[in-house]
Design brief:
The complex is a heterodimer of chains A (247) and B (86). With 247 residues, chain A is of the alpha/beta class. In chain A, 26% of the residues lie in helices and 23% in strands. In chain A, the strands form 3 sheets. Chain A has a 6-stranded mixed β-sheet. A 5-stranded mixed β-sheet of chain A has the order 4-3-2-1-13. In chain A, β9, α5 and β10 form a beta-alpha-beta unit. In chain A, α2 packs parallel to α3 and α4 runs parallel beside α5. The longest helix of chain A has 24 residues. Chain A is globular, with a radius of gyration of 17 Å. The termini of chain A are close together. The relative contact order of chain A is 0.18. Chain B is elongated, with a radius of gyration of 16 Å. In chain B, β1 and β2 form a beta hairpin. Helix content of chain B is 33%, strand content 23%. Chain B has a 3-stranded mixed β-sheet, with helices on one face. In chain B, α1 packs across α2. Chain B is α/β, with parallel strands linked by helices and 86 residues long. Chain B is built from 2 helices and 6 strands, in the order αβββαβββ. The chains are: A alpha/beta (247), B alpha/beta (86). Chains A and B meet through α6 and β13 of A and β3 and β6 of B.
């Protein structure tokens, strides 16, 4: 059986001036991939008109589009509108949710969550002290728990709603590997080990994320799940295709 | 006393994060030769935003020369496919 072809990209940071510039670089995506995953920061600052540019550029691509939002998509305080516009354009937007797709007789499951920061083992925040610090850590913990639940469901037998291929789609990074190149002092703002722990507890075949523009493409969780940073400045292209054999 | 370079750099980064012409977090600003020049590096999505970096910093740091080495995100071409090894 041929592998499932997952196209992925993050951090498009689209604004009105990008209209017409992205689509020419996606012209052959329908021939090269079975699904397109968007790892957040779809827009510049989260305005509906910016999301409209993204939705228009990705319209009628010929493959399903599944997205999570990123921090930039939240900046003006209207992530719901960004989501609404993207969904009206045909994309599936996930926040603590999952979706399954049929690809050539195989079920591909994607669990998506933006994630948040907090850092990595040995240099991470703890829910202690001020309410603001507790809120910061607990936000990531809650998102990680949602990811764990969704991945657990996708790892059920296919007959029970599970999938043959399971992908975790994030904006923030679950591992330090894919942050190499960023200043270590800002790792706590780029991701959290809690996200990786959720992936390792529940299982996944691939994790993709964005956010870390100066990071590295490749990494692994502690249990060896492949992690890929698909931010545009990292992959140097409009998208990259990852081929995954079904289990 | 002239403004310490670290505060000048931080003021520049704050301006780049908040000015609506740029609104980018990922740009690095480094003062060169004291406070005579700043070097800006990083990556933005469009050439308009790259050009706006110079405008914003010239407004924020009058009298300081801006060396704009910001790149525009490479959206063209295909990245090599990967056969993911579980």
């Amino acid at each position: 059986m041929t592998p499932v072809r997952i196209a992925a990209v993050g951090d498009l940071h689209a604004g009105p001036e990008m209209a017409g510039r992205l689509r020419p670089n996606l012209a052959d995506l329908g021939e090269r991939a079975d699904v397109l995953l968007l790892a957040g920061d779809l827009t510049h600052v989260g305005r509906a008109e910016e999301a409209e540019v993204v939705a228009a550029e990705l319209g009628d691509l010929g493959v399903p589009v599944v997205a999570v939002l990123g921090n930039h998509d939240h900046h003006v305080g209207e992530p719901g509108k960004v989501r609404e516009v993207m969904e009206a354009g045909g994309a599936t937007v996930l926040e603590g949710e999952s979706t399954t797709l049929d690809v050539g007789g195989r079920r591909v499951g994607v669990a998506g969550v933006k994630g948040f920061g907090g850092g990595f083992v040995g240099a991470c925040a703890t829910a202690f002290g001020e309410a603001e610090m507790k809120a910061f850590v607990e936000h990531t913990a809650e998102r990680s728990e949602q990811l764990r639940e969704q991945l657990t469901a996708l790892n059920a037998p296919v007959g029970d709603g599970g999938a043959d291929v399971v992908v975790a789609l994030l904006h923030y990074s679950p591992v330090e590997d894919t942050l190499r190149g960023e200043r270590p002092e800002i790792y706590p703002f780029l991701g959290s080990y809690l996200l990786a722990e959720a992936v390792d507890d529940a299982g996944a075949d691939l994790v993709v994320h964005g956010h870390a523009h100066q990071g590295a493409e490749r990494g692994r969780t502690a249990k060896g799940v492949p992690v890929r940073n698909v931010a545009v400045p990292v992959i140097h292209a409009a998208y990259k295709v990852y081929r995954l054999a079904a289990r | 006393m002239a403004e310490p370079a670290q505060y000048l750099e931080r003021r520049a980064q704050e301006a780049l994060a908040h000015d609506p012409r740029v609104q980018e977090l990922d740009l690095r600003v480094r003062a060169v030769n004291g406070d005579e020049r700043v070097l800006v590096t990083g990556c933005v999505a469009t050439r308009e935003r790259r050009d706006a970096v110079t405008e914003v910093l010239e407004g924020t740091l009058p009298g300081v020369a801006v060396v704009n080495e910001v790149e525009v995100m490479p959206l063209g071409g295909h990245a090599e496919e990967e056969e993911v090894d579980r």
